[in-house]
Write a structure and sequence with these properties.
By secondary structure, the protein is mainly beta. It has a domain at about 50-150. Helices cover about 10% and strands about 45% of the residues. The strands form 3 sheets. Strands 2, 5, 6, 9 and 10 form a 5-stranded mixed β-sheet that branches. A 3-stranded antiparallel β-sheet has the order 3-4-7, with no helix packed on it. The radius of gyration is 28 Å and the shape is elongated. The termini are far apart.
């Protein structure tokens, strides 16, 4: 009887105690672009039916601009296109889960228009927008360019 009482008391006391559980871990928030800035070279609807052409990029630089709040990063591109009829296009993709920002630079030409094959030089400066906090790595046409930090 004594063992039975001891057993009942032990069961009742253990029922009131909390069971230890694992501490919840915080999950990493994937990077994202909060606001894109205006890109005058982004693809347009009237680009349908045009032929993609190459560009030769001679210089790429990243510049952090502290004139803005929050600070932003701009990319500068210098290069040339194969014809005076080519139009520059710069497509900035949202960041992936590894904080990579891929930028595709190319030109478009209307295949129905005959143009002289005279190189056309271009110089473009584009704000990349504001991003969630983290260090982002910038790639232009699958080549690494540099990185920037967003706070």
């Amino acid at each position: 009887m004594r063992y039975l009482n001891f057993f009942l008391i032990a069961v009742l006391l253990s029922a009131c105690s909390t069971v230890p559980t694992a501490e919840p871990t915080s999950t990493a928030v994937p990077p994202y672009r909060i606001t894109p800035d205006e890109n005058p070279y982004e693809p347009k609807l009237e680009d349908l039916g045009r032929q993609i052409d190459e560009v030769t990029i001679t210089s790429v630089n990243l510049a952090e601009l502290y004139d803005y709040s929050p600070p932003r990063t701009a990319i500068g591109l210098i290069g040339y296109m194969p014809s005076v009829c080519d139009e520059l296009r710069v497509e900035i993709s949202p960041p992936d889960e590894n904080f990579n920002v891929f930028i595709q630079v190319y030109s478009l030409v209307n295949p129905d228009v005959q143009c002289d094959n005279v190189f056309q030089q271009f110089e473009a400066r584009i704000l990349l927008g504001t991003y969630s906090p983290g260090r982002y790595y910038v790639w232009v046409n699958d080549a690494p360019v540099g990185d920037f930090v967003s706070y």
